[in-house]
Amino acid sequence: MIHPTAIVHPDSQLGAGVSVGPWAVIGERCVVGDGCTIAARAVLERNVTLAARVSVGIGSIIGGDPQDLKYAGEDTDVTIGEGTVVREYATINRGTAASGRTSVGRNCFIMTYVHLAHDCHVGDNVILSNGCQFAGHVTVEDRVGVSGLCVVHQFTRLGRHAYIGGSSKVVQDVPPFVMATGNPSKLYGLNSVGLRRGGFPPETVRALKQAYQILFRSDLKLAQAVARVEAEIPAGPEVQHLVAFVTSSPRGVGV
Questions:
Q1: What pTM was computed for the model?
Q2: I need a surface site. Which of 83, 87, 114, 250 has the fewest CB within 10 A?
Q3: What is the fold of 195-247?
Q4: Going edge to edge, which strands form the sheet with 101-104?
Q5: Tens digits of per-residue pLDDT, 210-252?
């Protein structure tokens, strides 16, 4: 299932049932898991590991050198988890010495023209829509949805089950379970639709709404707001994660 015009480096390993399209290139020290599809003119430059059933679209480039002036040729890599789809003309660069790796989790959907820079770490079941651009060292937790044409500043974190509206400029952390949009992005309430689709029980959604109002819509300082949340709201794991995310944010939260 390897097209005769494709180029596969002898150091690379291909699993069972792999399909490699016309003029695709698989460079040195790549590992392609069972059932993967590498479309026409796609490039795995080097040091790329794809788990089973990953799909790489036409013209995408994975494993290119990091676009970082501090990069001095360190041996870094890219890993992509099982079942993830990378559509046409996306680019995912390798890591730098800072973390050694750029990683994407399982069952993600990385749409056309998305760019993930060096040392980005993307969780499971994440959707990045067309044209999103992520600078280096961005962390995306599980089940985040990012609409088209968003840009994300380096070292920013997107909390799990967060949703980012289209054409947003994200320069500060976006807490878990909330919606954000704008230039620069601001918080616009709880991601109720995402929580419902995620199967969260009503009591958890109510607790998160209460915590959101106290943390982001009261006049309290952060320490006071956290103390009130801890005193008044049942300490479920979701509320605890929200509080821990906000209190540990080095960039702050764009409220």
A1: 0.97
A2: 250
A3: Udp N-acetylglucosamine O-acyltransferase; Domain 2 (1.20.1180)
A4: 13-14, 31-32, 48-50, 77-80, 101-104, 121-122, 139-140, 157-158
A5: 999 999 999 999 999 999 999 999 989 999 999 999 999 999 9
